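Quick question, first post here. What does this chain look like in 3D?
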Amino acid sequence: MVDDAADRRELRDHAREIKFLVDAELGQRVVEWMRANLNADPSGTGAQGDEYETTSLYFDTPKFDTYYGKQSYGKSKYRIRQYGGADVIFLERKFRTDRLLAKRRTAVSVAEMQLLEPTETDPNWKGYWFHRRILLRGLRPVLQFSYDRTARQGTSETGPVRLTVDRNLRVLPMPDRAFIPGTGLPVLEDKNIMELKYRIALPALFKQLLQDYGLTIGKVSKYRVGLGALGITPPPQSDTGYA
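> Answer (accepted):
Ran it through. Tokens below.
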């Protein structure tokens, strides 16, 4: 059953997220560092209580306005996420400015995905807000991205911190909204995606991690990686900036 209260909203001032594309061997070393310095994720499983499988559906417009970050599409991202083979999925919106990070997440059953198909919305459904917004913004699912995650968290002088390492990256084209967990075209097979989350300024603990492992801050997007692996080339938009 789905928890009827599972409609969560989160606001974080000065939230920061940075990602790294690292060799798989280095990713495993970072996992060992995480387990020595941070606490297990409360939702994690496995022998260390810090692992889970994730599958996400990424949405965009036919003109790829999210990809290009056109106007408000560069601040708001929509996706549907499932963990493992659970019968619950999460409808998610992530809104970011330089100062504020706002997230909304609503849990519904997998069977309720069919309620996203009609072009008319049902105000009585708790996923109404998500359905309404993807219709208004002309969004449709573009691809499915799956991976295995190790997640750890803790506290620092600037607030809560979280570190994740994603491996076994896989992508599928998504002509509809059907989840197919655990399958897909392998991408970046010798790489892991590492992400640091913190507030205000990079904590000393993470600075030491970057220094010890010779990590350089960069940019990596699962959505962009997935598009490239599937050979999907967004049409050019000359009047927009880079997302």
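The first strand starts at residue 7 and ends at 13.
The two ends are 38 Å apart (CA to CA).
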